[in-house]
Design goal:
Elements (H helix, E strand, L loop, with lengths): L4 H4 L7 E3 L5 E6 L2 E6 L11 E2 H24 L6 E9 L1 H5 L9 E10 L5 H14 L1 H7 L11
Parallel strand pairs: 3-4
Antiparallel strand pairs: 1-2, 2-3, 5-6
Helix pairs in contact: 2-4
Length: 152
């Protein structure tokens, strides 16, 4: 596996279906269905999940799991930890009301609050390795090849 990349590739999948409620999609989430819809800033009801929030939540989840795995590997003394992500999104872009407004996040900030007595150089190493091995962070940080297909 270490020397043969083809043997280590594992496709992940996500599925969703639109339904007759306007601007919504039901997303399969490991045994449950989650209703995704528009953010209230774009006219959504706020009852459905916002995909922008879900992206930040995926980043927090991945970074938190990766942080714990890296801390274990480094024998890093870590008590409780919290992970926070926040992003700046100009909704005019996704609504198509301002051509100069980008579609997507302009900036994302990932913050860790650590309960530790480790020295700063060890904290820096922990965070650097967490960034390096966090799948969601690296995917956002280095745009992957994307393809889109539609079938009738």
């Amino acid at each position: 596996m270490r020397d043969d990349a083809s043997g280590s590739l594992s496709p992940l999948r996500a599925n969703g279906s639109t339904y007759d409620q306007a601007f919504a999609c039901m997303v399969e989430t490991g045994g449950a269905l989650a209703g995704a819809g528009r953010n209230p800033a774009t006219g959504g009801s706020g009852l459905e999940l916002c995909s922008g929030d879900m992206l930040l939540e995926a980043l927090v989840a991945c970074a938190g799991v990766t942080l714990k795995a890296v801390a274990t590997a480094l024998e890093f003394r870590l008590g409780a930890a919290t992970v926070e992500a926040e992003g700046d999104l100009d909704f005019r872009g996704t609504l198509g009301v301002a051509k100069d407004a980008p579609v997507g996040f302009r900036a994302i900030r990932l913050n860790f609050n650590l309960d530790t007595d480790e020295p700063q150089d060890r904290i820096d190493a922990l965070i650097k390795l967490t960034e390096r091995y966090c799948v969601v962070f690296q995917t956002i940080n280095s745009k992957p090849e994307l393809t889109v297909k539609a079938r009738a």
